[in-house]
Amino acid sequence: MTRDTRAGYAASSPELEQWLARHIEQGFDAESLVLSMLRSGYDATFARDTVNGALGHRAPVRQPPAAAPAPARQPVLQAATSPVAGSNVFRHEGREIPILFALEAPRVLLLQNLLDGTECDALISLARDRLHRSPVVNPDTGAENLIDARTSMGAMFQVGEHALIERIEARIAAVTGLPADHGEGLQILNYKPGGEYQPHFDFFNPQRPGEARQLRVGGQRIATLVIYLNSPPAGGATAFPKLGLEVAPVKGNAVFFSYKLPDGGLDDRTLHAGLPVESGEKWIATKWLRELPYRSKG
User: Fold this and answer.
1) Architecture of the domain spanning 76-290
2) What are the residue boundaries of the Fe2OG dioxygenase domain, all occurrences included (predicted)?
């Protein structure tokens, strides 16, 4: 996607076309679609022309208010994770993905059956032979270090590395409305009994030099999707301590949460943790989503 830094993004993509088609089908009107694109940083004229083209000029698009464009690009994530009233599912290539619950602020969704059992098992099989102790980014140096707060084993995959991963990434893009190239590589994590990840944020602190380095390869992280690849007998929930919320790990389900605020700030209510696994083991797949196309190296 190209960008005019003075006016905003002004290039189409397959993901944008799919997003428009899906939301037109769901009943969004022209003005709502244009405003969503403006909040995502698209150029106003490009947004109006693109929406008019997608609608086949069936509905007039009113001039949006001058204050509507966001100061920095925020992808169409917010609108794509807000189906019209009465719609409780996302749909992608014949698959229905029910929404089990939704919070508005911060935006948190629990999705049922994002993956089927066969896909979950296949991801675990792909990861088994490349598991290593999971590091975290040192906030001062940017180096990846091992710490006691994170005890999982992990396997990182490149975007589109495998046909299965490419298919899942397309599904994630359809649900979030964010192009696949805005996602970091899928990370498969395994927690043994007692394994946990203590409370933390997924976004980067630009005031810390080590974390600021991460912003050069795709901008800030704006949302996370955690997919549960198995159902541990006990423990292993994803907890949001500031929300009083715990999400039980159920095979095939996924929890999505976004932390980029409309004013460009970061929502600290998305503090979260992987609670200790009490029985059995836990497998998850994590997808971190960026505000810009992601490059694995700066």
Assistant:
1) Sandwich (2.60)
2) 182-291
